[in-house]
Every structure is written in C-alpha cells, then in structure tokens.
C-alpha cells in the first residue's frame, strides 16, 4: 500500500488535425481497492500558440522566456487569466460530459483515455488527467498533455 497513486499521460505533446478524431492516453496505478474517479480538465493557452507554431511568436514572449528558462508564456499563467473547464468525468462505467462539451462525440475509454471524435478550433490547450481514489491519497494524482489542433 506504500506505492501510492501514480498518473501518467503517455503523449505529453500531441499535434492533431482539425475535424479529425484523437485520443489522449492516460495510465494510472493505485493500491486502492475502491473504484477511481477519472476527470479530464481543459485549460486554454495563456496566449495564442498558433503564431508560434507558424514561426511568428511575439518578441516580448521570446525575451521573457529567455530570461527565465523555467517559465513558458503559453502554459504558465493563473487559471483566472485563461479558460478552465471540465471536459469529462468517469465513475465506474458512467461518463459525464462537462456542460461545454455536451452534444460532442467525447468519452473516456479504457481506464482513463480521453477520446474526442472530432476536434474543433477551441480544443487546442492543456488537458489534465486527474485521478481520485477515496483511500489512496499519496503519490501523483494528475498529469497533463498539450494538444495543438492544426488546420
């Protein structure tokens, strides 16, 4: 029981095409005998990542990130300065979509993989796989993937 909860997103950075399906894979191990609750949470970029992917990042962002190598102008900002929403949750075999995602082909498959049937413009951002168990509170309970949707 000393191992604790361990969550790992398998593809840390994923590039996918607009209107195509994708799967963000999340694996977890736990010493708990209780069923885990799986939640995928979306956080938008702090600023538009598309310009950087096309080689047009802002000089200000470049100079700031050069001064502090640990800081990323696209990823590191307060949640109050970006969009944060629950994509989907799974408890047992029941999957519940967040309000913004209702009506879309989105589900959680296997143990904790987020399957998106058709990527949309606003889907680029950070996706957090968060696992909660009632009796395994030690370890790492979340990991994240970065998804960039291209035209």
Automatic annotation (TrEMBL):
<dbReference type="InterPro" id="IPR051874">
    <property type="entry name" value="Ig-like_domain-LISCH7"/>
</dbReference>
<dbReference type="InterPro" id="IPR013783">
    <property type="entry name" value="Ig-like_fold"/>
</dbReference>
<dbReference type="GO" id="GO:0031016">
    <property type="term" value="P:pancreas development"/>
</dbReference>
<dbReference type="GO" id="GO:0016020">
    <property type="term" value="C:membrane"/>
</dbReference>
<protein>
    <submittedName>
        <fullName>Immunoglobulin like domain containing receptor 2</fullName>
    </submittedName>
</protein>
<dbReference type="InterPro" id="IPR036179">
    <property type="entry name" value="Ig-like_dom_sf"/>
</dbReference>
